[in-house]
C-alpha cells in the first residue's frame, strides 16, 4: 500500500517512519510512504504557498495553485490515489474508516496548516475530509500519522499477529478488556483468578464481559454497531439493572402557577398511564406521584386498584406491568426516604426546568451520571414547573428542551419525560434489548 503525504514540514515524519512496526513494514516493502514538500510546487523564488483570505480575518490560507500542481503531479502516477484532506471540519475518523481505507491501493494525505486551504481545492480536488477529533492542532501532520498508523495496521503482514488486530479496541465494536502480566500480585493488587485458571472458555467469557462493561460505561454509542450475541445481551441487561438506578418523580406539590405562586396541581389520568408506560419501557425503577391532596390521592388509589387488582388487570396485562411501578407519596421527602431505604444511600436529584436556573449538565454528562451506578431521582414538575424550594435542592439540572426554530418549549410533561428519558438512555436501551439493526 502506498501513502503520499503532502506537507510544508517533511522533516516532521523522519523519526516516526523509522521506528516500531511502521519502520519494519517499510523496510520489508509492505508499505511505501513518500513525503512531499508542498513548497516544491511553488513557482516564485520565495516558494510561497500561503496568502491572506479574501474578506479579511486572521491567519493565512494555503494558495490553490501549489496545491493543484502537487495533486495533479501525484494523480499522474499510477495507481490512482484517494485524496484525504486532514482538518477539524472533516468527518470523524474511526476504526471502521481505517479498515475501509486499508482496502485502497494508495492514499494522499494532505496536511492542513494555518486557517486551512482554499475552498476550491477542497471542493473539487479532495475525495474525503477527515478529522481525528474535536480539537485543533497546529497542523495536519499529527493527524496524518494517526491515519497512517491506524490504516497500516489493517494491511496484511504489518502486525505480526493478526489476532492482535482483530482483538484491538473497536475491532468488534467494543472497547478492549483489561490486560494483566506478571507478577500475579503487585502492591497487594492481584490478577483476577479466572485469568490464572487455564480454562480458555472462562477466560474468553471474562474478557468479553469486561469489554461489554467498559463499553457500556464509557462509550455506549459503540454498542449500536457491535455484533452482540444473546449471551452478550443478557449480560448487558443485568449490567443495566445494576448500574442504572434511575427513579422518576412527577411533582404536583410544590409547583408554581402562571403568576409564579406556589400551588398544588391536579392529577391527570394521562400522566399516570403514559409516564408509567414510559418508565417501564426505559427501565425506571419506581415512578413516584408526589401528591399531598386527599381527594386527588383517592382518585389515584381507585384507578390503581382498578388496573392492578380489578377488571383492568384482566383486560390489559401489559398496562399492569407499567402501573406496578407507580408509587403514590405525599411529598418529595417521602420519595427520597423510600429510595434511600432501597438503595442504602440518598439519590442524586436531577431537576428539569423550562428556564435555565444554573449551568446545566450536557445531555452526554447527564447520561454518564445515570450510568454511573449512583441512584438518581429525576424530578418532573407539573403546572408551570417546580417551585424554587424544590429546584434549590437539585444536585444537577438538565438542559431545557428547545426546538430548532426558536426558544418555544411549552411541552406537556409527558412529552418532556419521553424526550428526556430517550436522551439519557437511548445509547443503551435498544442495544441491550436486542431491538436494533444488525
Automatic annotation (TrEMBL):
Protein's UniProt name: tRNA (guanine-N(1)-)-methyltransferase
Assembly and interaction partners: Homodimer.
GO CC, one annotated term: cytosol
Family of the protein in this entry: Belongs to the RNA methyltransferase TrmD family.
SUPFAM superfamilies for this protein: alpha/beta knot (SSF75217)
GO function term, MF aspect, one: tRNA (guanine(37)-N1)-methyltransferase activity
Principal subcellular localization: cytoplasm
Localization in the cell: Cytoplasm
Stored HAMAP family: TrmD
GO biological process: tRNA N1-guanine methylation
Keywords, alphabetical: Cytoplasm, Methyltransferase, S-adenosyl-L-methionine, Transferase, tRNA processing
Gene: trmD
Domain of life: Bacteria
Entry's EC annotation: 2.1.1.228
Residues binding S-adenosyl-L-methionine: 112, 132-137
Domain tRNA (guanine-N(1)-)-methyltransferase C-terminal: 246-425
Amino acid at each position: 500500500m502506498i501513502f503520499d503525504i503532502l506537507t510544508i514540514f517533511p522533516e516532521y515524519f523522519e523519526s516516526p517512519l523509522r521506528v516500531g512496526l511502521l519502520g519494519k513494514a517499510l523496510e520489508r516493502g509492505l508499505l511505501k510512504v513518500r513525503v512531499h514538500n508542498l513548497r516544491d510546487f511553488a513557482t516564485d523564488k520565495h516558494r510561497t504557498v500561503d496568502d491572506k483570505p479574501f474578506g479579511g480575518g486572521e491567519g493565512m490560507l494555503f494558495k490553490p495553485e501549489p496545491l493543484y500542481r502537487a495533486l495533479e503531479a501525484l494523480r499522474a502516477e499510477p495507481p490512482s490515489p484517494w485524496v484525504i484532506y486532514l482538518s477539524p471540519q472533516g468527518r470523524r475518523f474511526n476504526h471502521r474508516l481505517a479498515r475501509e481505507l486499508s482496502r485502497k491501493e494508495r492514499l494522499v494525505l494532505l496536511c492542513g496548516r494555518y486557517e486551512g486551504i482554499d475552498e476550491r481545492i477542497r471542493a473539487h480536488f479532495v475525495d474525503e475530509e477527515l478529522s481525528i477529533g474535536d480539537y485543533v492542532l497546529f497542523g495536519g501532520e499529527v493527524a496524518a500519522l494517526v491515519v497512517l498508523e491506524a490504516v497500516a495496521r489493517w494491511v496484511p503482514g504489518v502486525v505480526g499477529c493478526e489476532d492482535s488486530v482483530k482483538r484491538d479496541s473497536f475491532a468488534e465494536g467494543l472497547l478492549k478488556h483489561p490486560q494483566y502480566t506478571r507478577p500475579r500480585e503487585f502492591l497487594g493488587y492481584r490478577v483476577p483468578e479466572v485469568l490464572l485458571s487455564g480454562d480458555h472458555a472462562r477466560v474468553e467469557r471474562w474478557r468479553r464481559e469486561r469489554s461489554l462493561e467498559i463499553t457500556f460505561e464509557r462509550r455506549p454509542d459503540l454498542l449500536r454497531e457491535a455484533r452482540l450475541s444473546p449471551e452478550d445481551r443478557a449480560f448487558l441487561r443485568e449490567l443495566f439493572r445494576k448500574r442504572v438506578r434511575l427513579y422518576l418523580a412527577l411533582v404536583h406539590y410544590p409547583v408554581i402557577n402562571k403568576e409564579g405562586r406556589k400551588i398544588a396541581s391536579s392529577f391527570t389520568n394521562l400522566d399516570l398511564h403514559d409516564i408509567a408506560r414510559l418508565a417501564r419501557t426505559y427501565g425506571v425503577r419506581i415512578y413516584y406521584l408526589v401528591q399531598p391532596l386527599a381527594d386527588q390521592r383517592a382518585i389515584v388509589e381507585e384507578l390503581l386498584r382498578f388496573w392492578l387488582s380489578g377488571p383492568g388487570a384482566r383486560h390489559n396485562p401489559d398496562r399492569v406491568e407499567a402501573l406496578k411501578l407507580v408509587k403514590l407519596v405525599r411529598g418529595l421527602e417521602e420519595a427520597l426516604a423510600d429510595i434511600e431505604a432501597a438503595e442504602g444511600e440518598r439519590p442524586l436529584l436531577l431537576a428539569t426546568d423550562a428556564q435555565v436556573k444554573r449551568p446545566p449538565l450536557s445531555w452526554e454528562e447527564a447520561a454518564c451520571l445515570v450510568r454511573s451506578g449512583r441512584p438518581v431521582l429525576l424530578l418532573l414538575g407539573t403546572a408551570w414547573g417546580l417551585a424554587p424550594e424544590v429546584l434549590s435542592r437539585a444536585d444537577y439540572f438538565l438542559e431545557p428542551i428547545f426546538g430548532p426554530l426558536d426558544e418555544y418549549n411549552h411541552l406537556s410533561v409527558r412529552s418532556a419525560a419521553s424526550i428526556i428519558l430517550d436522551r439519557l438512555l437511548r445509547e443503551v436501551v435498544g442495544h441491550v434489548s436486542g431491538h436494533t439493526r444488525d
